[in-house]
Design goal:
By secondary structure, this protein is α/β, with parallel strands linked by helices. It has 2 domains: about 1-25 and about 70-115 and about 165-238, TPP-binding domain (Rossmann fold); about 30-70 and about 115-155, SIR2/SIRT2 'Small Domain' (2-Layer Sandwich), CATH 3.30.1600.10. The protein contains 8 helices and 11 strands. The chain has helices at about 40-45, 45-50, 55-70, 75-85, 100-105, 165-175, 195-200, 225-230, and strands at about 5, 10-15, 90-95, 110, 115-120, 130, 150-155, 180, 205-210, 220-225, 235. Strands 4-3-2-8-9-10 form a 6-stranded parallel β-sheet, with helices on both faces. A 3-stranded antiparallel β-sheet has the order 6-5-7, with helices on one face. The two termini are about 20 Å apart. The structure holds adenosine-5-diphosphoribose. Adenosine-5-diphosphoribose binds near residues 17, 29, 30, 188 and 211.
């Protein structure tokens, strides 16, 4: 396929998943050697796991903090930051990723719907906002406490919890005329539904990744390839 043409009247909503960080060396979830391959999701990524075995949950996310800190943005992250620099507030990025590679590439209008690795928050939801926390914990006794006294938890949306900023996401999708989805298997909701919402509003929808996602039939175009290889130079801004 040729370039993706972006007109002066377009508003672009981008959704990214683990695939965009794959070329930075961060494993995806559902690949055969992915993050979930060595773990039971219910042991490390549910509210019940946090209650029953907080040390294991913290060890899992501490390992990911270490990996994330050592990774660098790749050309796909940079291509999105460059696109935002051209489009300004006609661009919005929603990532399912908890790494900070989009920010480090220069993206500004972005939200992390599944939380952020580099933050922690009160495990009792006492109302204090999340705090920056890049520490790597080996034991539960090292994990800090909220000012209310409760133990901190990773600022991660676990399975069964409601994603963050859904109101803002819905408003941005309602206004978008072009949705670009990168590197997500289309298996986790509500993110997998965003393409359907955009289509209902008449937007063009483009998927970028090495294989079609589960919801591929909802896209007007599928660009097959690795994000870091196909995204530089892909967008033509009028
Ligand atoms: N470029 C683009 N896409 C790629 C690349 C690449 N270089 N390499 C792999 N992919 C694609 C795969 O083809 C797959 O479709 O990335 C996708 C990764 O899918 P998943 O592992 O399911 O990750 P994701 O869709 O982000 O998972 C969604 O599930 O476990 C939860 O909360 C977690 O945010 C995560 C959510």
């Amino acid at each position: 396929m040729g370039k993706i043409n972006i007109k002066a009247s377009d508003r672009v909503f981008v959704l990214t998943g683990a695939g965009i960080s794959a070329e930075s060396g961060l494993p995806t979830f559902r690949a055969s050697d992915g993050l979930w391959a060595g773990h039971h999701v219910e042991d490390v990524c549910t509210p019940e796991a946090l209650e029953q075995n907080p040390e294991l949950v913290w060890q899992f996310y501490s390992e990911r903090r270490e990996q994330g800190a050592n990774a660098k943005p790749n050309p796909a992250h940079l291509a999105l930051a460059e696109l935002e620099a051209k489009l300004g507030d006609r661009f919005f990025l929603c990532t399912q990723n908890v790494d900070d590679l989009h920010e480090r590439a220069g993206s500004k209008r972005l939200i992390h719907m599944h939380g952020e690795l580099a933050k922690s928050r009160c495990s009792e939801e006492c109302g204090q906002p999340p705090i920056e926390d890049r520490r790597v914990y080996k034991n539960l006794s090292e994990v800090g406490r909220c000012s209310c006294g409760a133990r901190l938890r990773p600022h991660i949306v676990f399975f069964g919890e409601i994603p963050l900023d859904m109101g803002m996401i819905q408003r941005e999708i309602d206004q978008a005329t072009l949705m670009i989805v990168v590197g997500t298997s289309g298996s986790v909701y509500p993110a997998a539904n965003f393409v359907h919402w955009a289509r209902q509003n008449g937007a063009r929808t483009v998927y970028i990744g090495p294989e079609p996602p589960l919801n591929a039939s909802a896209f007007t175009n599928v660009v097959e390839g690795k994000a870091g290889e196909v995204m530089p130079g892909l967008f033509e801004v009028e």
